[in-house]
C-alpha cells in the first residue's frame, strides 16, 4: 500500500479534513496517476453528507480527476508514463455482462465500481480524487486531448459526460429544440454541448442573473422560470428538456413545455422524490426519463468532441484548504461554474 495526502469527510456531519489515505500497490494492468486537479461535484456533497444513503467513513470524494501517469503495471498497453489522463465516476466493472460488453459499464449488472464510496473487487472501499495520487485499471484511465488544459478538463469527467450522454442518446442535433434547466456546473456544460451538436438551445433558470453567460456559452434564448409567463409562452416548444438541477421542481409545469413526443431527462439528483402527474405525460405522449454518466468509450468520445469544438468547463481553482468553504458556496449557487482543487495543495 502507498499512503498519500488527501482530504476526507470523517462523518456525514463533519467538515472535510486533511488526512492520509491508502492506495493499492500497482497491479499488472494498473496505472498510477499523479493527480493535478480534482473538480468538486454536487454529488460529492450529497454523498459525504449522507443524502443518498449511509456511507463508510472516512471518505475522500472526487470523481473529476486529471493528471499524468506516474507508473504503469507490467501488462499495461494503453498508457505510458507521462501521458495526460483523467478518471471519471467509474474505476471498475465486471467487463463481462451484457451492459459492459456494449460499453455501458456504468450499468454493470454485477455492480459498477464508482470512484469513491463503493466496494471494489478487492473488498476495499474506493477513495476519490481529493488526493495526490490514484491507482486505477488502465481501461478506466481516459486520454486527455492536448487541446484541453488539465484544469478545465477535470469537470468534463462528470459534468461533461453527464450532459453529453443523454443529448447523444436522445439524438440531439440540427433541428432539435433543447431546453436546459439550470445554468450551474452541469447546465453550463449542457448548453455548450447541445449548441455544438447543432440544437436550438434555451436556458430555463430561476432568474435572468446569468443570462449574459448563457448566451455567451451558446444559448439562443434565456428565460426566467420565476416568471409564470415563461411557461405560457413556451408551452409545447421543446423536443428535449435537460433538467440539471438537484432540487425538486414542478414537473407538471416543465412537462407542459414539451412538444408531442418530447422527453424531459433528469440528470440532477435531488434527495427528495419528484412528484409526477401521469396526465402530464399521457396528454402529449411525453416522457420523463433519467440518465446517468456514460460508459468509458462514450466518455472518451465526449473528451474528443469537446477538444474538437473548443468546449471546456468554466472554473475557479482553489487550494485544498478551501474545500469546505467551496461546498457552502456550491449549495448557495455561488460559483461560475465549477470549483477545481489544485492537487498540489493537498500536502500544504
Question: Can you offer a commentary on this structure?
Answer:
With 348 residues, the protein is of the alpha/beta class. The protein is built from eleven helices and 17 strands. Strands 3, 4, 5, 8, 9, 16 and 17 form a seven-stranded mixed β-sheet that branches. Helix 4 (159-169) crosses helix 5. It is globular.
What is the global morphology? globular
- How can the largest sheet be summarized? 7 strands, mixed
Low-confidence stretches: none
Please report which band the strand proportion falls in: under 5%, 5-15%, 15-25%, 25-35%, 35-45% or over 45%.
25-35%
Oligomer: single chain
Measured between the Cα atoms of the first and last residue, the distance is 22 Å
Element-level helix/strand string: EEEHEEEHEEEHHEHEHEHEHEHEHEHE
List the defining traits of the structure above.
single chain, 7-stranded mixed beta sheet, alpha/beta, 348 residues, globular
